[in-house]
């Protein structure tokens, strides 16, 4: 693609990333409460004042309002700013690593769903089915596209992932993870992970292919172990509180999306 055209596309996608980041905040707040995503329009939970469009500009409005409601001065959680900024930065990283294609757009969208899962699972210990379905739907688009254009290209080189590898990833990862889940329940006689985690791994396996899915399962377990170890050393581990595994799967999934195929290629080249 022409370099100038690509720059214009990148700027447009970054702006879209900001808008979607703003929508993620609505999703994170309303989805676990079972509220409609479109009505009522955004309002202050304290004074009920409707939030005007100029107070709803991603990143900018939070800074202009200094994190407070224009009408009643109620504090706006920093999370709103953080989610918008994270979505922008993580999207830019996806665009920087991959050439502009159906793959890079799909990865950017999955990234946004992952951000929503991180915040919802950390706070409510649930992963809404709708978010897993969204990842699976993007995975289906990737699978169909790969039947015609199996090559993923970017700064880390190119990788070829065939359509059946995605299907194998979806079914394989979900089965493997479900087996671990059942085993854990048999041994510990309690729920270690929710079924939401199993569904999430299955949906991501479909979107990434079976090789990256294997990497994903290993990496998310390593991330969780490191976290548990740190919390244990700091004496902050609460055994009675349900453990949210979703954020670790999400972090691992993002790493696998960006560099998974590259790492797998390096590994396979050893033999
Ligand atoms: Zn207010």
How would you portray this structure in words?
- This protein is 68% helix and 3% strand.
- The mean pLDDT is 91.
- Strands 1-2 form a two-stranded antiparallel sheet.
- It folds into two domains: 1-97, no CATH class; 99-271, no CATH class.
- With 271 residues, it is an all-alpha fold.
- β1 and β2 (157-160) form a beta hairpin.
- The site of zinc ion has 8 residues, from loops.
Structural key phrases:
single chain, globular, mainly alpha, 3% strand, 271 residues
Number of strands: 2
User: In this structure, how is the largest beta sheet organized?
Assistant: 2 strands, antiparallel
Give the structural class: mainly alpha
Shape: globular
The string of secondary-structure elements, in order, is: HHHHHEEHHHH
How many structural domains in the coordinates?
2
Rounded Rg: 20 Å
Give the rounded overall mean pLDDT. Answer: 91
Oligomerization state of this entry? Answer: single chain
Q: Termini separation (Å)? A: 35 Å
Low-confidence parts, pLDDT < 50 over ≥5 residues?
none
Ions and ligands: zinc ion
Read across the widest sheet, the strand sequence of neighbours is 1-2
Strand content: under 5%
Please give the share of residues in helix: 55-70%
Question: Total number of helical segments?
Answer: 9
Summarize the structure.
With 271 residues, this protein is an all-alpha fold.
Outline the fold blueprint.
Blueprint: H1 3-30, H2 60-64, H3 78-97, H4 102-124, H5 129-148, E1 151-154, E2 157-160, H6 163-188, H7 195-208, H8 210-233, H9 246-268
Antiparallel strand pairs: 1-2
Helix pairs in contact: 1-3, 1-4, 3-4, 4-5, 4-9, 5-6, 5-7, 6-7, 6-8, 7-8, 7-9, 8-9
This protein binds zinc ion (ZN).
Zinc ion (ZN) binds next to loops.
